[in-house]
Design goal:
heterodimer, A: 367 residues, alpha+beta, three-stranded antiparallel β-sheet, 13 helices, B: 245 residues, alpha/beta, five-stranded parallel β-sheet, 7 helices
Chain lengths: 367, 245
C-alpha cells in the first residue's frame, strides 16, 4: 500500500501541499503564453491536481532503488528517467485538457494558444517530480525508522518475556508467597528481621534472573545462589531446616551449567525437609578429583512418601537437571539418585572445566 | 458477641505468629492453640472443641485436607495457604473462606465475620469430611486413619486389602487393622485405579498382594494373598481381575 494513500490525513496534507502551485502555474500561463486569467486558472488547477496524482507514482521507483543501498548514478538515472516520463505525460494531459476545453465557446482557441506553453510546462514538471521523489524518500525513511523502533521494542518485550518464563519455571509460587508472608510476619515483631528477609529474597530473585541468562557459571556463584535460597527457607522454617556444606576450595572455580544445583536444593527442602515434622539437615558437597567435578545434594525424607512420582514437581526438576547435563556433556556427565531408608541423595559428576579467569591465573603462575 | 475460640495450624512459625498477631487485634476472639502440624491439630480440636480452625494446606505428613478428614466434629474451617490451587477443593469441603498468604488483617476480619454469621445461623462447622477426598481430583497416595488418640498415615503400598463393615471400612496393613468411617465405594473412588481392585462386594484388594487365584465353586473364586490370607472373589470381581492381569 502506498504510504500516502494509506492514510486519509496524509493524502489530504499531500494535496494541500500541491495547491499553492496552481496560482504559480496560472501565472506562468498568463505571462508566458498571454492567456487570459480565466483560461489560465481553469487550466492550471486541474493540471496541478493531476500532476499531484501522477507524482505519487514516484513511490515505486523510490522503493525499487532504496537511497542507501543503490549506486549514485543508478539513482540519478532512474529518477531522471521517471521525471522526464511523468513530465512529458503531464504536458500531454495538459494538451488534451486544452483541446477538450477548446470545444466550449468560452475557451475557443485555447488548444492553439497551448503549444508555446508545452516546453515551459515540461521544464516545470521535471523539478516538481524530483521534489516528489525527495518527499517519498523522506516518508520511507520515517516509516523504516518507526518500524525499526517497533521491532526493537518487540524484541525487548520478547527477551523480557523469555526471562520471566525462565524465572517462573524456576520459581515455586509457594516459596515466593510463603516468603512474602514471612516478611509480613516479621514486620510486626522484628522489623530488622523483616528487612533482612526482604533483602535475602531480593538477592535470590536477582540471582535467578542473572544466572538464568548465562550458560555457565563458576561453582562459587552457583553455591552463593543456593545459599541465598537456603537462607530464605531457614527464615521460614526456623529450627526445622539446617544446612551443612562440605565444599573443596579447588572446586569453587569450576564451571557448571547455571542453576544446575538449584532444582536439587529446592527439592531437598520442598520434598525433603519440609515434609518432616522435625525437619532435618540439607547437605551440599563439592569436590574436585582430577578432571572430574563431583557435586552432591543430600536430605532426609519421609520414607512413607513415594519418592519421585512421575510428573511430580520433584521428578520434573530432576529430569530437567539430567537433560541439561546430557545435552551439555553427553556421556561425560552422570547423575545418580540414591534413595535409601529416609535419605535422598543426588550426585552429579561432570568434567571439571575451569572458568577462563582462573585458567589465566594458572598460566601466569606457571610461566 | 460470644467469644470465638480459634485454633491455628501452620508448619511455619512466622505464619503462626502473624495469624496470632492479627487475631489479638480482633475483639472477642480467643486463640486457644497454635499447632505446628496436622497431628497437633487433630489432637487440639478433639480436646479444645474450638469454633474455628485456621488451617494451612501444605504441611508435613498430614495436609490440611487430611486433618479435616480425621476430625469427628469439625469446627468452621478457614483455609490459609500460599497459593490458590486448592481453592476449589476447599469449598468442596465446605470451608467458610479461603485466604491466600500474605493477606491484610482486614481480610481475616472479614472471614471472622463470615464465620460468626454461619455460627449465628446455627450452621456448625464443616460436615464430617468422610467422602471429601473424592473432590481431590487426583488419586490418593496414602490413607489417614485414627484409632482413638493415635493417627496413622498409611502409604498405599502398605495396605493389603480393605473390607467393608457396616458404616466403616477395615483397612488391613501388615498385621494391623485400621478402621475408617467411610463406605467402601467412596474409598474405592479415591484410590488409584489399577492398583486396587474391587474383587467382591465387600473387598478391595491391593493387586500387588495377590499370589494366586483358586476356583472355589462354579461361579466363585478365592484370592490367595502372599501372606496366605484367603478372600472371596465374586463373578464380577473375577472378570475385573482378569482384565487387569
Amino acid at each position: 500500500m502506498h504510504p500516502i494513500l494509506a492514510r486519509r490525513e496524509r493524502a489530504g496534507l499531500y494535496l494541500a501541499g500541491w495547491l499553492p502551485l496552481a496560482p504559480l502555474v496560472a501565472l506562468l500561463f498568463v505571462w508566458g503564453g498571454g492567456l487570459p486569467w480565466g483560461w489560465a486558472a481553469a487550466l492550471a488547477l486541474p493540471l496541478v491536481l493531476l500532476y499531484a496524482q501522477l507524482c505519487l507514482a514516484a513511490w515505486y521507483p523510490c522503493r525499487a532503488v532504496p537511497l542507501r543501498q543503490s549506486r549514485f548514478w543508478w539513482l540519478i538515472a532512474a529518477h531522471l528517467l521517471g521525471a522526464l516520463l511523468s513530465s512529458a505525460l503531464w504536458v500531454l494531459l495538459g494538451w488534451a485538457l486544452a483541446a477538450v476545453l477548446a470545444g466550449l465557446p468560452y475557451f475557443r482557441g485555447l488548444d492553439e494558444r497551448f503549444a508555446p506553453l508545452a516546453l515551459p510546462l515540461f521544464a516545470l514538471g521535471v523539478p516538481l517530480y524530483l521534489v516528489a521523489v525527495a518527499v517519498h524518500y523522506l516518508i520511507l525513511a520515517f516509516e523504516a525508522s518507526r518500524e525499526a523502533e517497533a521491532r526493537a521494542l518487540a524484541a525487548q518485550v520478547e527477551a523480557r518475556e523469555a526471562e520471566l518464563r525462565a524465572l517462573r519455571a524456576q520459581l515455586d509460587p509457594h516459596f515466593l508467597f510463603n516468603s512474602l508472608n514471612a516478611v509480613a510476619a516479621l514486620a510486626g515483631s522484628d522489623p530488622g528481621g523483616a528487612r533482612k528477609m526482604a533483602i535475602l529474597l531480593a538477592e535470590f530473585l536477582r540471582g535467578s534472573l542473572r544466572l538464568s541468562a548465562r550458560a555457565s557459571v563458576p561453582l562459587a556463584e552457583e553455591l552463593a545462589h543456593a545459599a541465598a535460597y537456603l537462607a530464605v527457607e531457614r527464615a521460614r522454617f526456623g529450627e526445622r531446616l539446617a544446612v551443612e556444606e562440605e565444599i573443596e576450595e579447588a572446586a569453587l572455580g569450576c564451571l557448571v551449567p547455571a542453576l544446575i544445583l538449584q532444582p536439587l536444593v529446592e527439592n531437598a527442602v520442598r520434598h525433603g525437609v519440609a515434609q518432616l515434622l522435625d525437619g532435618g539437615v540439607v547437605r551440599l558437597a563439592a569436590r574436585r578429583a582430577g578432571g572430574r567435578l563431583h557435586l552432591a545434594v543430600e536430605n532426609p525424607c519421609d520414607p512413607d512418601r513415594r519418592p519421585s512420582r512421575r510428573g511430580s514437581g520433584e521428578s520434573v526438576g530432576l529430569a530437567n537437571v539430567a537433560a541439561r547435563l546430557a545435552t551439555r556433556y553427553g556421556e561425560a556427565a552422570r547423575l545418580e539418585v540414591r534413595a535409601v531408608e529416609g535419605r535422598f541423595r543426588v550426585e552429579l559428576a561432570l568434567p571439571a572445566e575451569e572458568a577462563p579467569k582462573a585458567r589465566h591465573v594458572g598460566r601466569a603462575l606457571r610461566n | 458477641m460470644t467469644t470465638l475460640r480459634v485454633v491455628i495450624v501452620d508448619d511455619e512459625p512466622g505464619a503462626r505468629s502473624l495469624l496470632a498477631e492479627y487475631l489479638a487485634a480482633e475483639p472477642d476472639v480467643e486463640l486457644v492453640a497454635a499447632c505446628a502440624n496436622g497431628f497437633e491439630a487433630v489432637k487440639a480440636v478433639g480436646e479444645l472443641r474450638p469454633d474455628l480452625l485456621l488451617l494451612d494446606v501444605q504441611m508435613p505428613k498430614l495436609d490440611g485436607f487430611e486433618v479435616l478428614e480425621l476430625l469427628e466434629a469439625p469446627p468452621a474451617v478457614v483455609f490459609v495457604t500460599a497459593y490458590d490451587e486448592h481453592a476449589v477443593r476447599a469449598f468442596d469441603v465446605h470451608a467458610v473462606d479461603y485466604l491466600v498468604k500474605p493477606f491484610p488483617p482486614e481480610r481475616l476480619a472479614a472471614s471472622l465475620a463470615r464465620v460468626r454469621e454461619r455460627l449465628a445461623r446455627g450452621e456448625a462447622g464443616a460436615p464430617p469430611a468422610r467422602a471429601t477426598t473424592a473432590a481431590r481430583g487426583r488419586p490418593l497416595e496414602r490413607l489417614v486413619v485414627r484409632a482413638g488418640e493415635r493417627i496413622h498415615v498409611l502409604p498405599l503400598d502398605r495396605v493389603d486389602y480393605v473390607e467393608a463393615r457396616d458404616d466403616a471400612v477395615r483397612v488391613r496393613a501388615g498385621k494391623e487393622d485400621h478402621f475408617k468411617p467411610q463406605t467402601l465405594a467412596d474409598l474405592e473412588a479415591t484410590l488409584p485405579p489399577g492398583r486396587f481392585v474391587r474383587i467382591h462386594r465387600s473387598y478391595l484388594l491391593n493387586l500387588d498382594r495377590l499370589a494366586r487365584l483358586e476356583r472355589y465353586a462354579k461361579d466363585s473364586h478365592l484370592a490367595i494373598l502372599q501372606d496366605g490370607t484367603r478372600l472371596p472373589v465374586s463373578r464380577a470381581g473375577y472378570a475385573r481381575l482378569k482384565t487387569l492381569l
